[in-house]
Amino acid sequence: MYKIGVNIFDLIHTTFSSRRSLICLSFILFTTGVSAQKVNKKWIISAGINAVDLYPTGINENNPYFPQGEILEDFFNISDHWNIEGQSISISRLIFRSFYLGVEASINNIKKINGRNNMDYPYYSGNFYIQKRFYSNKKISPYFRVGYGVSGIDRGIFGGEGLKFSQYFSESLEPGIGFNIALTKSLGIQISSSFVKTKEDTGITHFRHQAGIYFGLGTNDRDGDGIINRKDKCPDEAGPPELFGCPDTDGDGIIDKEDNCPNKAGTQEFFGCPDTDGDGIIDKEDKCPDEFGPIENNGCKLVIVTPEESITTSDTVSSVSSENEIIEVDDVNPSKEKNSDLKDKKSDELVIYFPASKAVILGRKAYDMLLEVRNYLDSNLEKYIVIQGHSSGEGSDQYNYLLSEQRAEAVKTHLINLGIDSSRIKIQAFGSQKPLYEENSERNIILNRRIEIIFE
Questions:
Q1: Which residues, in sequence order, are CB contacts of 167 under 8 Å at separation 6+?
Q2: What contacts 170, CB < 8 A, 6 or more positions away?
Q3: pLDDT tens by residue, 30-73
Q4: Domains and CATH numbers, the chain
Q5: N or C: which end of the chain has fewer CB within 10 A?
């Protein structure tokens, strides 16, 4: 068993003792790694030099071959304490997100102990470790690792301790930190420092610093988002863990491949598309995306025409049927009598009719009637009015309700413009729920497109 251990370490020492070998290995790794991806690789192989420092790990005055400095004392005194004669090699595998499980072997020659440099003690170390990388997709990615293994310095007869070679080895716990500097997508520089705490009395606690190159093979995370491929629903596109590795460009909580509008934040109801005005029509299909409007009018408001914009002054109400035939209804307001005092008028006499699908006040008779309403309210300050909006039965219930409401609002707006306080005007919308006439003719349909004014 002893011979086998010595032979293995001798082989490692022979392989890496030459600086020329290390340079050749670096060149091979560089030329084969330039085309790989800079992500969490499935396998990481690293090789480089190490420096062992026995000095700043706690004073042991009874043994001159053991540490002689306080913890971290003279830590960067390279010339007096660092033994830069070693090589290290390691191989690790990605096991979960940015966690790696690996094995490492190191050799060295200890020539400096407490300032003395006339020694030549072989150093050997081997350990298993788990490593956590941070910012794996960045050019510089730090990591933390914890290792457990064996280490030993073969002091032999020069140590004067009379121990066999195998008895110089001790179990050791090795916490460490380091960082990777990416040169290409799979090749980079690795620098680390480990504190090797030995368990047995014959072991020597020390620091081991390492610098070398690493090479990545394969990948468990093609898109580099920290989620391994088998758990990543979008393995070729980086995304956050809460969305199972899928991207959400607009940040609306709907992944891009299920989002009909991936570049604009929307809602689940509309499959990721926005509806800015809340009219139930997504913006890209809404002709008026910034104003609430019915589906039947492509998301645009119904037009409200003021008296100045009206193009007619006749007493005739015109309406367009579904076949675009213009139908005229003469004197649809039963009362022709001008009367500034409306106290005796019936509510069915205070009716204004509207064109199909419009909230437009048309006709001089309608404007005269509203002027009479204004005059009556001015003379009867205790009164207020209720404007009831109606529509025909054409179209959906939602559309008809909205249309009847906008007709009532148009009349209210005109009365306010005439000087009536808004607090004296109430509006009610009934849609097509309260028709005056059975809609068995085009004329009856027209007469149901109306508002009624009621005094209270």
A1: 202
A2: 150, 151, 152, 198, 199, 200, 202, 203, 204
A3: 333 333 334 467 889 999 999 999 888 887 777 766 777 888 88
A4: 2-219 (2.40.160.20), 250-296 (no CATH), 307-455 (3.30.1330.60)
A5: N
